[in-house]
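Per your request, structure below.
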């Protein structure tokens, strides 16, 4: 009998080991697949400033990285950036291509849009397989400078206020036991978080059901505190807070009669992890896993029935960022989770900036030398972007969100952290490390759930990676049932040098050409035949061609975890509004004077509604005013006419058939909302769609390529041109103009060494300079020189540099420049 029991126990032990070892293999396999194949992507967007005036430009650089390594992503090459209003409507969208770490872009803020809070959102198509709040979302503000009052939504941007703008009489308090649960007879730390209350610095006590004080706690400026508790059977606990001599009671979570706990101490250079259990078998067959953004960094399978163990890890072996430790019980269930933030000196980057002139005068040239090295002085590869803004008008704090805080912190935990830069202002600061650890206790890992990762079937992602532009669709029979047809297709790019591809559609009639990368519009000819393109059969062309939509529908707008715009210095906002008012006045005077000179008008006249309208239209263009302009506000009775008919109202323009002539020569360059198009794309456009039409010649037209005799620039009322498909009369053929990737405009940087520029209007830029992309190589001498001219404003300017190295280390650097 004893032998049978021993054999039985041995078999049970072997079976347990086999099952647990199988689970260990499963965990390592799934997390390996996640890191190598299913890794998420992250995007961070740096803007030149946090708020803008109507008529301003938003300049930005978008960084796209592998969400685990923070190196260049090998999945997507296309980034979508959207500007979204408070009604969740997308008012502008850019499609950008990058094959490096970053890409530049911009939005022009039209003066006729509604001021208020806006959302800047960026994502790849592949990122849509995750949650909507995993997309990059940043709040910006657009201010109406015509009003002298600070916008209400900026006054209310105070983290101490709740979403309704009212203060509750009773604080909202949440409790977060370390590891997840309280367990009887096991000591646990409990993080305490105060929300939506004016005073986040509260003091209180933990009391038992007999009103005995067990421990005390105090919350910090971020409304977070900590206490320690060892729960007992048949005993409940609550937190007691006294406010204005009134006691508020908050029950603590109930303790489990049996279970596991996981605690951690972060000492900076090392972390100490303690696992404990009150089960009869203790921690036997439990599995502790540590991962950083999905990459395994630690594992421990416990084979003995111990009730607790302690392990110590050297943080020098880890990367910077959030590291998650999960304890699985002997049934393979995740029972405890603990996050810790790692910040080691080995990952420090040295960005050096040297100015040619530390105290330049107004309109004086400044040159800066930039270098990027590791802590040992070796050159680093990477890309950075830089904004220089007037600190009298633009709030810039080191506690703000930046690329380092976003990639390493906010993008990996549930819920957003306000003023995250505070935790990185001082290196190796024990107090801030302690406060950041409290943040880790109150937030969970956001990127995946273990149960989903381990047990859900691996399905093909709904949204695919995008490498370029595709031209796709399907073909059907022209007559009869019009069923799908496996036809032969041919696509031709009608450029200077035509490019052609042939393809046979699938059995369902589907075809797909690409990926293609181009930044301009391209006229495309698409043909289909029943048999092939050599057949003389009269029925060979009886094919209908249907194109897929060129862009995906935008994802749903979810305003959780948005990086909030928090502004406390109303003086800076007031200064910004005053500067915007002055700039607008100067622009109006300058444009009015320019108009007088063009028309040889000598007498002065008061600014009229017409002048305001002219300024409004000029703000939509890159070139200001035009020598000849047709404003549809003056041709409302002709809004039913086509663009070709309207053009005949402009002196020197003749239209005939499907061609436009200027000086008896055909116009080869046509723009719609600054987007180059083919003449057939505007053939059926009517005045109902048009805001105004400009004719550009000479120097104004020279800034565009292939201008020939001049440029026709059409601006629509919506400001968003969609491609137009023109179907020929004959079957089996369509032609259209397809839109390429957006190319960022170049930031205007005046050159005051030029005498003509030096006579220009007064220069009061709030963004003194914007440099969207500075690329470093690993050459031994790897210094980049950036130069610009100061404006007419004597002020202190903030220099803000963000970027990332090729090895995945985020870069954040701020300094100042004084202009006398």
């Amino acid at each position: 009998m004893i032998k049978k029991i021993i054999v039985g126990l041995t078999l049970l032990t072997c079976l347990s080991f086999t099952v647990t070892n199988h689970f260990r293999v499963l965990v390592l396999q799934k997390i390996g697949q996640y890191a190598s194949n299913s890794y998420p992507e992250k995007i961070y967007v740096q803007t030149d400033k946090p708020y803008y005036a109507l008529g301003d430009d938003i300049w930005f650089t978008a960084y796209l990285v592998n969400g685990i390594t923070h190196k260049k992503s090998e999945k997507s090459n296309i980034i979508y950036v959207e500007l979204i209003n408070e009604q969740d409507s997308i008012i502008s969208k850019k499609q950008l291509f990058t094959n490096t770490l970053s890409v530049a872009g911009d939005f022009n803020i039209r003066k006729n849009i509604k001021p208020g809070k806006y959302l800047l959102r960026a994502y790849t198509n592949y990122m849509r397989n995750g949650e909507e709040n995993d997309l990059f979302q940043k709040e910006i503000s657009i201010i109406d400078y015509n009003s002298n009052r600070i916008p209400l939504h900026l006054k209310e941007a105070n983290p101490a206020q709740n979403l309704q703008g009212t203060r509750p009489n009773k604080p909202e308090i949440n409790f977060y036991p370390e590891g997840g649960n309280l367990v009887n007879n096991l000591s646990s730390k409990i993080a305490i978080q105060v929300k939506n209350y004016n005073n986040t610095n509260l003091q209180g006590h933990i009391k038992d059901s007999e009103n005995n004080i067990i421990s005390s706690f105090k919350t910090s400026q971020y409304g977070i505190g900590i206490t320690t508790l060892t729960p007992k059977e048949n005993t409940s606990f609550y937190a007691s807070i006294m406010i204005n001599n009134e006691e508020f009671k908050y029950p603590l979570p109930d303790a489990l009669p049996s279970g596991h706990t996981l605690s951690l101490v972060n000492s900076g250079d090392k972390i100490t992890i303690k696992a404990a259990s009150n089960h009869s078998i203790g921690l036997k067959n439990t599995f502790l896993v540590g991962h950083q953004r999905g990459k395994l960094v630690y594992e421990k399978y416990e084979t003995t029935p111990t009730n607790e163990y302690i392990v110590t890890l050297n943080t020098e072996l880890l990367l910077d960022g959030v590291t998650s430790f999960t304890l699985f019980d002997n049934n393979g269930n995740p029972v405890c989770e603990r996050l810790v933030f790692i910040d080691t000196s080995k990952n420090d980057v040295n960005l050096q900036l040297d100015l040619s002139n530390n105290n330049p005068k107004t309109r004086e040239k400044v040159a800066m030398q930039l270098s990027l090295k590791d802590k040992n002085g070796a050159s680093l590869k990477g890309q950075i972007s830089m904004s220089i803004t007037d600190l009298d008008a633009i709030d810039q704090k080191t506690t703000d969100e930046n690329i380092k805080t976003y990639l390493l912190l906010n993008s990996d935990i549930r819920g957003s952290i306000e003023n995250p830069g505070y935790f990185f202002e001082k290196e190796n600061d024990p107090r801030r490390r302690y406060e950041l650890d409290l943040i880790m206790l109150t937030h969970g890992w956001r990127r995946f759930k273990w149960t989903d990762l381990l047990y859900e079937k691996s399905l093909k992602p709904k949204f695919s990676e995008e490498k370029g532009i595709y031209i796709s669709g399907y073909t059907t029979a022209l007559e009869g049932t019009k069923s799908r047809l496996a036809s032969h297709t041919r696509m031709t790019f009608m450029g200077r040098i035509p490019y052609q591809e042939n393809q046979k559609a699938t059995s369902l009639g589907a075809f797909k050409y690409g990926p293609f990368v181009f930044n301009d519009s391209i006229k495309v000819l698409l043909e289909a035949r029943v048999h092939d393109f050599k057949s003389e059969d009269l029925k060979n062309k009886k094919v209908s061609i249907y194109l897929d939509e060129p862009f995906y529908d935008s994802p749903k707008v979810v305003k959780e975890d948005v990086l909030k715009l928090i502004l406390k210095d109303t003086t800076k906002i007031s200064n910004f509004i005053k500067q915007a008012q002055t700039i607008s006045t100067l622009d109006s005077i300058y444009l009015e004077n320019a108009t007088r000179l063009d028309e040889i008008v000598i007498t002065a006249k008061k600014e009229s509604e017409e002048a305001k309208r002219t300024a409004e239209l000029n703000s939509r263009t890159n070139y200001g005013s035009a020598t000849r302009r047709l404003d549809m506000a003056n041709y409302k009775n002709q809004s039913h006419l086509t663009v070709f008919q309207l053009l005949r109202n402009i002196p020197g323009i003749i239209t005939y058939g499907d061609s436009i002539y200027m000086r008896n020569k055909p116009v080869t360059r046509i723009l719609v909302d600054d987007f180059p198009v083919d003449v057939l794309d505007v053939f059926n456009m009517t005045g109902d769609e048009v805001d105004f039409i400009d004719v550009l010649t000479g120097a104004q037209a020279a800034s565009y390529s292939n201008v020939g005799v001049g440029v026709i620039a059409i601006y629509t009322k919506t400001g968003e041109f969609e491609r137009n498909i023109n179907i020929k009369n004959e079957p089996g053929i369509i032609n259209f103009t397809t839109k390429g990737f957006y190319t960022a405009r170049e930031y205007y940087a005046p050159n005051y060494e030029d005498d003509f520029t030096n006579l220009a209007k007064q220069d009061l830029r709030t963004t003194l300079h914007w440099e969207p992309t500075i690329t470093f190589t690993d050459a031994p001498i790897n210094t980049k020189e950036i130069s610009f001219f100061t404006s007419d404003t004597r002020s202190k300017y903030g220099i803000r540099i963000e970027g990332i190295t090729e090895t995945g280390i985020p870069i954040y650097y701020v300094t100042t420049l004084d202009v006398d």
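Residues 469-547 form one domain.

Regards,
D.
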